Every structure is written in structure tokens, then in C-alpha cells.
Amino acid sequence: MKPAITPAALQALLAQDASVTLLDVRLAEDRDQDPVRVAGARWRDPHAVEAWGGELDRGTPVVVYCVHGHHVSQTAAGALQMKGFDVRHLAGGLEAWKDAGGAVSPLG
Q1: Residue 64: closest CA among 27, 29, 35
Q2: CB-CB contact of 90 with 53 (8 Å)
Q3: What is the pLDDT of residues 78-96, one digit of tens each?
Q4: What's this model's pTM, rounded to 2 decimal places?
Q5: pLDDT tens digit sequence for 10-54
Q6: Helix, strand or coil for residue 104?
Q7: How many CB atoms lie within 10 A of CB 75?
Q8: What is the mean pLDDT of the chain?
């Protein structure tokens, strides 16, 4: 698996207007407890990677995140990598992103 991307590195990438698919793969109950997301991210059920993985553009790098950047996002990233995607998980997850001053938006 590729190394994680840090919040600072992702912020720099987004500041360059780089084309990146951002996916919130938090468990539904975790998402419901903290109803914000990294600005521009879309939520996808981490248990259904097989179903939605085929909808993604293989030519665009993917960054996935969960709450803390551990099992959930790393498992989703591994599944996408097996499908041939250029994918990384966000080190420290949404919590590290917020701690680093990353932009968030409400779910909706």
C-alpha cells in the first residue's frame, strides 16, 4: 500500500487545484455523530467498495479518510488499490484534518 498523505500535503495539493477525488469512508454512525466532511468530499459506504468503486475515474488520484485514519480508511484504500486506483488514505483522518485547520463543510 502507498504511504498515507498528511493533512498538510493534501491541503497543498488542493491549493494547487489538483484533480483529486476525496471520499469520506467513515462508518455511517461515525458520520452521523460528526456531520461535517472535508470540503469537496463525498461520503461512500466503506462496506460497499465493490459496488461504488467502479464509478470512480481511474485517471484521478483518490484520497479516502475515516475518523482517525486507521482501519476503515486503510481497508477502503487497499480495496481501491487492488482495483488499480492511485489511492492514499489521509493520515490521522478527519480529526487530524480539522486539527490542521483543513476546510470542512456540513454534510448534505
Answers
A1: 27
A2: no
A3: 999 999 999 999 999 999 9
A4: 0.94
A5: 999 999 977 999 999 999 999 999 999 999 999 999 999 999 999
A6: strand
A7: 17
A8: 94
- Cα separation, 97 vs 36, in Å, equals 12
Q: Please report which helix (H) or strand (E) contains residue 49, including its range.
A: helix 49-52
Q: Which residue type occupies 3?
A: P
Contact 26, 66 (CB under 8 A): yes
What is each CA distance from 33 to 27, 29, 36, 53, 105, in whole angstroms?
10, 6, 9, 25, 15
Residues in CB range of 76: below 8 A, 6 or more apart: 23, 25, 44, 46, 49, 64, 66, 89
